[in-house]
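The instructor's notes for this session suggest beginning with a concrete chain rather than abstract definitions. Hand out the sequence below and ask the class to guess, before any prediction is shown, which regions might be ordered.
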Amino acid sequence: NPLNPHYPEIIYRTGDIGRFNERGELVFVCRRDAQIKHMGHRIELGEIEAAASGTDGVRAACCVYDAGNKRIGLYYVGDTEPAALTKALRAALPPYMIPAFCEKLSAMPLTPNGKVDRKGLRERAENKEERKLRFIGLFMFGRRGGACPSRLPKIFRYLQFSQISGGASPSPTT
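After discussion, reveal the predicted structure:
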């Protein structure tokens, strides 16, 4: 440890990025790699990508984490349908690693350097959730904002909010 001249001390490369605050304390900022914490588990997004890429009919895969909505998403290029890919991932991965959605793309978006544009895909996942909630709001309340429960399909009345939005929910409504 170059910061401790008094006695030998080992420093480990953990993959964490930190900084010193105004009081001189070391503060954790984020991870350097694609490891996330989801549902109490540490998950390497590359493991999900490897499982998806190993599925027949998938040529390329990119996994992103939407931290705001606490959802894992998978974008892929290939001939496999999203439902078939999800089924294959359920057989290969533990339940907490299954992506909330699998979206098929015609081509993987790339940065000017030729790498996969993970930031763009993450923004796409965030916008996808926002569009879904906006659609549900318009459907439930109409364009003028007035509540109209008769327009709400019967199935939505019995689903928990988490099943519609992907977030935490109160008990189901009846």
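Then share the key points. Strands lie at 16-20, 26-31, 35-38, 41-44, 58-66, 71-78, 101-105. Helices lie at 45-53, 82-92, 118-141, 154-158, 161-165.
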